[in-house]
Design goal:
Length: 189
């Protein structure tokens, strides 16, 4: 079971000044170990909120894949003239990414896990990760009711950890980020 996918027409909501304040993309990625020289993939990159900071952090010599199931969202990213190391990857079904196995050091999956069948989705993410690569999951807290997806569609960090373990990924850190979001950092061991 999974929730509804976010509609591209609402993309501006993903880049509000309030979101930038409570979830600063560069600082969040650096806090959870993204570094220069890493190949990074943002799965469900949306309007490029994390992707553009990620592409800058890893630097021109490293790939930053923008993966999305929505062509409209990928056009939004293109319209922002992202750094030259960004490569757009459209996925038809959302469960197969046109990226080589073991190609990336770091995966970002922000506000997306609850929109998908978690284990099927995480197994495809694992496939593109190098051994030792990191996966940063950011998702909506179940407690926060005012904004975001319906509470019954949200996943708790405990549920996320269970899905990670079923997908052969090891949770290494969990943190409440603010009133809306939490993070779980996982590793391919
Ligand atoms: C709520 S938005 C979040 C965007 C971005 N990660 C952020 O935090 O600002 C979810 C995005 O993920 C995309 N998406 C959902 N499921 C997907 C999947 N299985 N594969 C690729 N993209 C997906 C949607 O099209 C949408 O652009």
């Amino acid at each position: 079971m999974h929730g509804h996918r976010f509609e591209a027409k609402h993309h501006k909501r993903l880049d509000s000044p309030y979101r930038r304040r409570i979830l600063p993309p560069k600082a969040t990625l650096e806090r959870f170990g993204l570094k220069k020289g890493m190949a990074v993939a943002d799965i469900g990159a949306g309007s490029g909120y994390f992707l553009i900071s990620a592409a800058r952090i890893v630097g021109k010599e490293s790939k930053a894949y923008a993966v999305d199931a929505s062509k409209e969202m990928l056009s939004v990213v293109k319209g922002k003239r992202p750094p030259s190391n960004v490569e757009m990857v459209h996925t038809d079904d959302g469960y197969s990414f046109k990226i080589d196995s073991g190609a990336v050091d770091y995966v970002i999956a922000s506000s997306i896990l609850h929109e998908n069948e978690p284990v099927k989705f995480l197994k495809e993410i694992r496939r593109i990760m190098k051994p030792g690569a990191l996966l940063l999951i950011i998702d909506w807290r179940k407690e926060s009711l005012r904004y975001g997806p319906p509470v019954e569609e949200r996943l708790s960090p405990e549920q996320v950890k269970e899905f990670l373990s079923k997908s052969n990924l090891k949770a290494v850190k969990t943190a409440v980020l603010n009133t809306r979001y939490y993070a779980v950092l996982a590793k391919k061991v």
